[in-house]
Amino acid sequence: MRVFIGIQFDEETRRDIETFLSPFKRISSPIKWIKPENIHLTLKFIGEVSSAQYKEIKTALINRQYTTGPLDIDFSGCGTFSRGYLINIFWLGIRQNPKLEALYRDVEEALQKKGIPPEKRPFKPHITLGRNKREFNAGQLMSLIEKRASEPVSRFRARSFQLFKSELFKTGPVYTIQEEISLDTA
Which residue of 5, 39, 106, 107 is 20 to 30 Å from 117, comparing CA positions? Predict the structure, then answer.
């Protein structure tokens, strides 16, 4: 089973994100846009695990005490991750959030105890909205990104995070929530 840990958003938040994304989609490009139902925040991508590993991961996440409580996530601006002239990822930004960073550290610590290695790169929370594998003239896209670089998009109150199963198909990935882990401390 292929799994990751993330935060699922409600319909209103996804609509706000889709509204923000609409002008970008009208620009001619080879970017493959993420389906609205797949928009989420990844806290930790784990990958393929056995049934036994999955049970250990699930138990570690459920049994941990999370002290952040519900957290507000503010979406603002956008940008790209690139290699040379190739734009790989189009992303939506998340304002700096100490509670979100604390949750990330808690998840990493719980998983390390079960043999899942920590992420080597620093945590840079963002929402992937599009992927690309081809070079193209990105001038129009970059101009629009520059205009909307710090524009507020939406706010979401996360009261839980999720353990997802990820299945890959020719039509695109399907993410299924396997476990809901509450952040309510009461």
Answer: 39
